[in-house]
Records
---
Amino acid sequence: MQSLTDLFVGAQGWLFDSLVQPLLFELGLGSFVEMGFEGIEFVLLGVVELAIAYTLMRPLEAWWPAEKWAQRRAVRVDVIYTVLNRLGIVPLVVFALLAPLFLAVDGWLRFHDIIPRQLEDWLPALDYHPLASFLIYLVILDFSEYWRHRLSHSFRWWWALHGIHHSQRQMSFWTDSRNHLLDDLIAGVWFASLSLLIGVPPGQFIGLLIVLRLVENLSHANTRLGFGRLGDYLVVGPRYHRWHHALDLPADPRFACGCNFAILFPIWDILFGTLYLAPKLPPTGIHESTEQELSARNDFWAQQKLGLVLLWRALTTRANRQSSA
């Protein structure tokens, strides 16, 4: 294990010294050197995460699929999303957009002697139990992610973006990263803002993010894998999450906007009445209503354009309704 850690740290240092640091100084961004070093860690961990996901989940999909496909051509666009996301392209864009804002907020807070308190400040004993503090942060962030996810199904303007994620008819572990870039930006702001608010230590932030993303990879996998009658109510798995992506939602008014919004712990769906499980495994996707939506299903740039078009329609329709009222 130590040799792997040394290899990782060595690769991070080499990339920083030979590529990232010179580029930042060349662009006049010397103040972002520390963030650049941490960014390399994020990218390298993304590579490791992607390797783990492929090694563990691709065999599951091959040996025990929920659906058998004649060809996997529709999955290709999700691979593009995953590579852009896990190798840091999308996070880099989000970082570039958010970094000035968070630096400004951090500077204002420090100027006014406002420093977000960490769990260890409230519970000093956690200083000696880092795993316990990690799990508490994980529960808090997972609760927050449940509501972000549920709200993305509840507001028409937000669904215009999030619906891209649900349009895949051949759902696989790659589908986790299939998101409109603007939806990714909103999710990044949501997750990072709460992490800052509750004082998540930088050393735990990336670990928390990776745990959630690996679970999401597994939950989207094209496999019949289940965790048993009890386990399916403890941790979100492929059978559980497949109903969230069901082409046809359960015929119950409670599920008009969807079901099974939990990311990691099903307890949130249980508590807030959005849980649905059935023995069969449903087909996935959404019912596209226009030729534009159909043609965008497997095209990256067409999906990005479609999301913006639908977002504009949702916002202008609402504005027109309010003005006429």
Note: The mean pLDDT is 85.
---
Amino acid sequence: MNPSRARLALIVGLAGMVLLVAVIVSPLLLMSPPSFLGDGGFSVDCDDTAQVEEVSDSASSDIPDEYLGLYKEYGRKIGVQWNILAAVGKRETDHGRSDLPGVKSGTNSAGAAGPMQFLISTWGGKARIPASSDVNGYASDGDGDGVADVYDPADAILGAAKMLKRNGAPENVRQALFVYNRAWWYVDQVEEIARRYARSGDVKVPPQASRECDDPLVEAAPSDLVAKILQFALAQRGKPYLWGGTGPDAFDCSGVIYAAYREAGLSIPRTTFTQWPFGVKVSEGEEQPGDLVFFNAGPGTRPDSPGHVGLVVSKGKMLEARCTLCGPIKVTSYQARDNRVGFTRPLQNPDVVDQIEKLQNPL
């Protein structure tokens, strides 16, 4: 054979082999991460706090250092994307730099005030409120001076983070932004700014329903019984909140806990109001997976009659079904939540102890 033709045949043959390998491998790449990328290539961040986006050059040059620090701090603490918080601050008042009425004093024509432009009624009824006051609003004391001041950047940004979280962020950012200012053009503008502020050019959403985030929690359970409770509860991640719901498609806060205990063969009270006195009280710091954590939240509730409950799944973390607008059932931080009342351990209730004995020693 002519040497030139031999070399050509060899090249064509090698090209065919490469093409064949590509045809075989490419479907595999679609099914699972290739091992040669390592664990970091497709790893899942199981932390409920907002995704930590790198700051873009645009954000660094546009956002004052004080404000950028506050957006990141309270975004992480409350569990809201910092770049969404920053985009709201930019759209509303150019991070407090605007000289329009209502930014530094008074209100604008719509009744909004401060760098994050809260309606005074939404803030709590007054522009400045003692932090110790029981208010119906998002008034917050971010700088710890004892006053929730709508004009103070730390206070206002913390309040905005709470409002966005309450209304659907970080999963349903568009819904949360629409509640913040009821106009879809506003939502589009804020999202566009947020994308510019993130180095990735995106607004990321935590993977709340990933099994990769469930398994380590179950494996760390203090007993097989608690593991069974957690396994059921965590499997409900991503399902919607429904007042009075006990499954299988939707739950309320106490309903998902009631159903999880029932799946483990145990009967506990159905509602938050009856679950609170049922379990043995546990000191803060002594709580463990399977315990319940209660909050003075919701209509008609008070410190001795909490209206919201979560299931402790690890130290500092709980599974909760919070509200219709708060996004799906998920794992969140209870340490960052206001109005925490205390912890209980239903597994130490005498009636539950008897139930466990019968499960372990059937007749």
Note: The longest strand covers residues 308-314.
---
Amino acid sequence: MRTGLAMMLAVASASLIAAGPPPAPPAIEPTDQPADAPLRLPEMPLHDPFIVADPATQTYYLFTSNDAAMTGSRRPGTMVYTSSDLKNWTRPRTVFSLPDGIWAEAGAWAPEVHRWKDRWYLFTTVHNESRPLPGSATIAGPRPTYRRGTVLAVAERPEGPYRLLNEGEPIAPASAMTLDGTLHVDPEGRPWLVYAHEWLQTTDGTMEAMPLTDDLSAAGPARTLFHASEAPWVEGQKQPEGDTVFVTDGPQFYRTRTGRLLMLWSSYGRGGYLEGLARSRSDRVEGPWEQLGTLVERDSGHGMLFHAFDGRLMMVVHRPFRNARGKLYEMRDDGDRLTVLREAVELDGETRPTHPCRLGSC
């Protein structure tokens, strides 16, 4: 999430400011790094990471926003790192670039790649600060709003390349300032778009769900799942305009071994940017939703879950918010919630893990 980035950084919590700049990433010895995968996570700039573990190729694809310093491309878009072991990664390459001639000109945040109907779909959030929201959009706060939304691109393989669909029009209504769209498929096999409705427009950000057709276009109106302020761990962010806002970010879903439906999502709390957990009382996306607390703190967030090829349930987040790097956690499915077992420091190189290794396992 990079919404109003300069604004949010300016109002970051005093605890983060007092903590000073983040520690330098640990040194990585190059001697054991293969030539075709020369990078480790401390060397890989990324924000809002999303990992696809493809069993057909035994390859992990780590998608993130394009970084010109890494790819040489200055176009907003998506780049991907690949790995066979979650430790050694290839240099990234661009798999999607925002074309000229559409309404959006910046962003390409929070890329996600989902398999649907034998094709691979890229969801990514784009914007244009010079384009006002169309229609009679309700503005609850004193800040100016502009067009922002999640768009869709498609490819035949997870590694792309991805082709923009619908001339770049967002999936959610263009009159709503939205971001971080994700795909959820309900027990009947029907797709949903779940996204964050932007605090810039709503003041108290919401998480919303919209039913989709089989071609991933809107099939009905969106419904509100919850407000950011409903989570006890979320702290409001005082703004220069004098009001206090609440942020929703990065929804991701997980169905537990007992059938409970969980949502990972992020906001700001006492420790900065945090990764939280919610649970649907009905085990359906429609909810109602209850807040279960945080999973990872210390300026960590925008997480997602995947299964490693050895069967372990893993979570990836970015930390810190500025100069972000990927952090990997081994997780446990408790049936009705998730537990962080440890940070996989042998993979992510972290010298100050949020969750210590246990029983000498790393």
Note: Residues 3-31 have pLDDT under 50 and may be disordered.
